[in-house]
Specification:
Blueprint lengths: L1 E4 L9 H9 L24 E8 L5 E5 L11 H12 L5 E3 L2 H4 L13 E3 H11 L2 H12 L2 H15 L21 H11 L3 H8 L2 E4 L8 E4 L4 H4 L3 E7 L7 E8 L2 E10 L2 H15 L2 E5 L4 E3 L4 E4 L3 E4 L8 E6 L5 H5 L2 E9 L2 E10 L18
Parallel strand pairs: 1-15
Antiparallel strand pairs: 2-3, 2-10, 4-5, 6-7, 8-9, 9-10, 11-14, 12-13, 13-17, 15-16, 16-17
Helix pairs in contact: 2-4, 2-5, 4-5, 5-6
C-alpha cells in the first residue's frame, strides 16, 4: 500500500463540516459495483433478471447483473417500509387497525378492524409473514396516510442515494411508478442492517405476539427459507407477485463478514442465493487494510490511525490499495480535541473509505465510514 500527501491542496474543509464528519462514526455510504479482477473466477450462473451482491460493512457491490435497471420488486418493498417505520415511529406505540388496513388484499397476518397492536409486532408481521394489512396499518400510523408514508419512503431513498427506485405504496402490490433496481435494494438492505432493531427482526425465525381476538397468541413463522437452508443466514425478505415473479433478498454472516444478495424475477432463487453467497465469502473476504494505532508521519505533528480499516478484497487487490493523507484545516476546537486529519483509502483510483487520524497521545477508536459515496473517486 502506498501513502502520499495532499495536505497543502486539501485544507479547505470548515470546522463545522469536520464536526459533522466526526458524528458519522458508523455512517454507511454505498459504493458502485466494481469489476472483478482477472484472476478471480466469474460469479456463478443464475436465473435472475436482476442480481446484486454487496458487502454490508463497506457497501461494496461485489457483483451485479442488470443491477441498475428498475424492475418490479413485489414485497421486497417492505424492507423500505420496515426501516422507515423503525426510524420514524415509536416501536412501543399501539396502532389502531383501520378498515382499509384490515381489508387489504394479498398476504395477511389477519388483523381486524379496531384491533390495537404494537408497532414493533406489526413490523414483525410485515417482515416474517409479509402482511399487506400490517404494511397498510404501519403506513397510516407512521405517515398519516399511504401517500404520506410513500413520501417518507422516497425521501429515505434519496438520502441513501438510491437513483433507480420509486415507491408508491408500503406493501409492494404492483402499481404504476412503483419499482427499484437490484443494486438499490442491495444498498438499502445494507443500510437497514446497520440498525439493530431491523437486524433482529429479519433474523427472527418465529415470533409470537398478543392476539386480542382468540385465547392463543399470534404465531408468525418466517417465510424466508434461507434462515434454515444456509449456514450463517440472518435475513432478509421474500417477495412475489404475478408480474414481479419470485424476488428475494438474503443475508448471511461468516467470519465477521456479512453479505447480502438480491435477485429479481428468479425462478430458482434459493439455489442461486446459496451459490452467490458462497462466491462472495470465498473470493472477497473482509481484509484488514490498516490497524488502529498505526503511525502516520505528518509534517508538523506525530499522528496515528484512530481505528482499523477493513474492506472486502479479492486476490491481488490488496496491493492496489493506496492511502492518501489529507489535512482538513483542523483548527481551534477540532484540533484541540486531538484530530490531525484523515487517511483516505483508494482502490484503483476510487475512494473506498476513510479513517480519522489523531495525535499520538490520544486513544484510537473512531472511523469515518467504511466506504466512499456512490460514484465518489
Amino acid at each position: 500500500m502506498h501513502v502520499t500527501s495532499r495536505a497543502q491542496r486539501t485544507s479547505r474543509m470548515t470546522i463545522a463540516a469536520v464536526l459533522l464528519g466526526a458524528l458519522m462514526v458508523t455512517g454507511f455510504m454505498p459504493s458502485q459495483a466494481e469489476a472483478a479482477p482477472a484472476s478471480i473466477p466469474k460469479p456463478p450462473a443464475n436465473h435472475a433478471k436482476g442480481v446484486s451482491l454487496i458487502d454490508v460493512a463497506s457497501g461494496r457491490i461485489i457483483y451485479s447483473n442488470r443491477g441498475d435497471e428498475p424492475m418490479l420488486i413485489a414485497s421486497l418493498t417492505k424492507i423500505m417500509t420496515a426501516i422507515v417505520a423503525i426510524e420514524h415511529g415509536r416501536l412501543d406505540d399501539l396502532v389502531t387497525v383501520s378498515k382499509r388496513a384490515a381489508g387489504k388484499e394479498g398476504s395477511s397476518i389477519y388483523l381486524k378492524v379496531g384491533e390495537k397492536i404494537q408497532l414493533r409486532n406489526l413490523i414483525y408481521g410485515l417482515m416474517l409473514r409479509s402482511g399487506n394489512d400490517a404494511a397498510t396499518a404501519i403506513a397510516e400510523h407512521v405517515g398519516g396516510s399511504i401517500g404520506g408514508f410513500a413520501f417518507l419512503m422516497n425521501k429515505k431513498a434519496a438520502e441513501i442515494g438510491l437513483s433507480n427506485s420509486q415507491y408508491m405504496n408500503p406493501h409492494g402490490l404492483d402499481e404504476p411508478g412503483h419499482y427499484a433496481s437490484a443494486n438499490d435494494l442491495a444498498m438499502l438492505t445494507a443500510y437497514a442492517l446497520h440498525n439493530p432493531d431491523f437486524r433482529t427482526i429479519v433474523a427472527t425465525k418465529v415470533r409470537t405476539a398478543p392476539n386480542p381476538h382468540d385465547p392463543w397468541d399470534y404465531k408468525w413463522v418466517n417465510k424466508n427459507k434461507m434462515l434454515h437452508m444456509y449456514e450463517g443466514a440472518d435475513g432478509v425478505k421474500t417477495g412475489y407477485t404475478k408480474k414481479a415473479l419470485r424476488c428475494l433478498v438474503s443475508s448471511a454472516t461468516r467470519n465477521g463478514q456479512q453479505l447480502v444478495v438480491v435477485t429479481l424475477n428468479d425462478r430458482d432463487d434459493w439455489a442461486d442465493h446459496r451459490k452467490l453467497l458462497d462466491y462472495g465469502f470465498s473470493h472477497y473476504p473482509l481484509t484488514k487494510v490498516a490497524a488502529a494505532g498505526d503511525p502516520v508521519l505528518i509534517a508538523a505533528d506525530a499522528g496515528k490511525l484512530a481505528s482499523d480499516f477493513q474492506y472486502p478484497l479479492a486476490a491481488g487487490e490488496r496491493e492496489q490499495v493506496t492511502a492518501v493523507y489529507e489535512n482538513k484545516d483542523l483548527r481551534q476546537t477540532v484540533y484541540s480535541l486531538g484530530y490531525r486529519g484523515w487517511m483516505n483509502y483508494y482502490l484503483n483510483g476510487k475512494r473506498i473509505g476513510s479513517v480519522s487520524i489523531v495525535a499520538s497521545d490520544k486513544e484510537p477508536g473512531r472511523t469515518e465510514g467504511q466506504a466512499g459515496k456512490r460514484g465518489a473517486g
